[in-house]
Amino acid sequence: MENNKIITLEGVKKHFPIGGGKFTALNGINITFGEGEFAGFVGPSGSGKTTLLNLIGSLDTPSEGKVLVLDNDIGLLTAKKAAMLRRKKLGFIFQTYNLLPVYTVFENIEFPLLLFNMGASERKKAVLDAIEWVGLSDKVKSKPAQLSGGECQRVAIARAMVKKPKVVLADEPTANLDSENSHHILKTMENLNKNLQTTFIFATHDDKVINYLKRKILLQDGKVTADEVTTN
Predict the structure, then answer these.
(1) Going from the N-terminus, what domains does the chain have, and what CATH number goes with each?
(2) Is 50 exceeded by the pLDDT of residue 2?
(3) Predicted TM-score (pTM) above 0.85
């Protein structure tokens, strides 16, 4: 895990304008992640968790310091190159599923692959593999309105994983789920982490998620207060 560093944050600060001054959301963050980690930013609302995910996901740029993701300096990327990095190498899972209601499960998961130069048969195999990973093979033709919340989140996971990204960023992925569905979702992601060596990074204050993490990075007021590797 400690070998093969794929993400590095050096002296990262992030300021947001507020009134006539600025709010410092991140204040001197230094972190590295290796390939295949199952880690999370843990802390109360306003501690900087989502801001960090947005920086790693190239959805935002640092005010100071450096964010390196898969050999890309996020602060130096053009909007087009940042979009290309997200499209090819990163997967995103949010607390809202963001599924297209008129599309079937198959079509929702296939959607990211339509941006690639990939043949129809290769695309179909990738989608069916992803559906099998999350245990929804019997729901291929269903639309989101016909699914439970837990099933919708499993579709969102499959959509994030279908291109086999190097890194998946998950922002409070169990926030809208009950305990049973939360554990099912987390077990699914844990298995994908083990089987595909995908790096998962969560932002959460949910104890159910925290109990699955192999590494917990505690945040308070935009600073890292602890960085703990667990043996669970």
Answers:
(1) 5-229 (3.40.50.300)
(2) no
(3) yes
